[in-house]
Amino acid sequence: MNDILQIKHLSKTYGGTGGAAATHALDDVSFAVRCGEFVSVMGPSGSGKTTLLNILAGLDTPTHGEILLDGQSYAGLDGEQLAAFRRSQLGFIFQDYNLLDTLTLGENVALPLLLDKRDPALRVQQTLALLGIETLADRFPYQASGGQQQRAAVARAIVHDPSLVLADEPTGNLDSASAKLLLQQFAVLNQQMRVTILMVTHDPQAASYADRVIFIKDGQLSTMLERGLQPSRAFFTSILDTLSTLEEG
Ligand SMILES: Nc1ncnc2c1ncn2[C@@H]1O[C@H](COP(=O)(O)OP(=O)(O)O)[C@@H](O)[C@H]1O
Ligand SMILES: [Mg+2]
After folding, report:
1. Cβ(140) to ligand 1 under 6 A?
2. pTM (predicted TM-score)
3. Looking at the 3D structure of the chain, how many domains does it have?
4. Going by DSSP bridges, is the β-strand pair 64-69/164-168 parallel, antiparallel, or unpaired?
5. Is residue 11 part of a domain?
6. How does pLDDT run along the chain (249 residues), one tens digit per residue?
7. 106: domain range?
8. Is 109 contained in some domain?
9. What's 17's DSSP letter?
10. Which CATH number does the domain housing residue 162 bear?
11. How far is the CA of 86 from the centre of ligand 1 (A)?
12. Nearest to residue 89, comparing CAs of 120, 63, 62, 68?
């Protein structure tokens, strides 16, 4: 299988000028994500997870290293090209949904298509239906539950058929039933729609839905776990075991 994403020796240092101590948020991180894969990134608070996603999203720039998406280097794109590339190739899901309050859920989902100058009509309806929220298209975010808003945010992230979906703690603000529903939908998107997903989480239950879990600590890649043929339960137990080993070490 092809690598959709290649991260090579990525480092990000904040501060360190004017006598202030530097923070090495990311320190020589390298890994690849295969086309169609569902990968979780786990790590304690402050380990660099959001920094990693922000750089992948093109919202922040690395201090060192290179990112290739579908073989194309971010570094070769100017600001405008990067924005266009991001609009067509990437989808984002944030912990706090980030829906626009003044637009309905349907209008929020249509936004990436409008920005990319594509006709939203049919595609929005299909995507809302895929997430089971087609009856909520005309509601505003405040008229929907947290779980429904997050499903709309997922619809918005995939409506333009991106190469890669990046999710930062997508279940972080959901109750456990809504979180489970969302993760089951991620699994369907991944397995049936072949959406490639890179999801940051600190929840081992959420991580156990992925094919592979990458652990980072203090900005460095510490270890990786493959699901292989294990049932979810066994994979979940291996994730817990790895987490406790990493905390001890
Ligand atoms: N904009 C920033 N300026 C300075 N330090 C930052 C900034 N963003 C993150 N950091 C620092 O980088 C480290 C990693 O942060 P972050 O990527 O948010 O971790 P995580 O998402 O794993 O909790 C932390 O020590 C954090 O304080
Ligand atoms: Mg974070």
Report:
1. no
2. 0.93
3. 1
4. unpaired
5. no
6. 589 999 999 999 998 887 778 999 999 999 999 999 999 999 988 999 999 999 998 889 999 999 998 888 888 788 888 888 888 889 999 888 999 999 999 999 999 999 888 888 889 999 999 999 999 999 999 999 999 999 999 999 999 989 899 999 999 989 999 999 999 999 998 998 889 999 999 899 999 999 999 999 999 999 999 999 988 899 999 999 999 988 876
7. 36-62+78-248
8. yes
9. S
10. 3.40.50.300
11. 22
12. 68
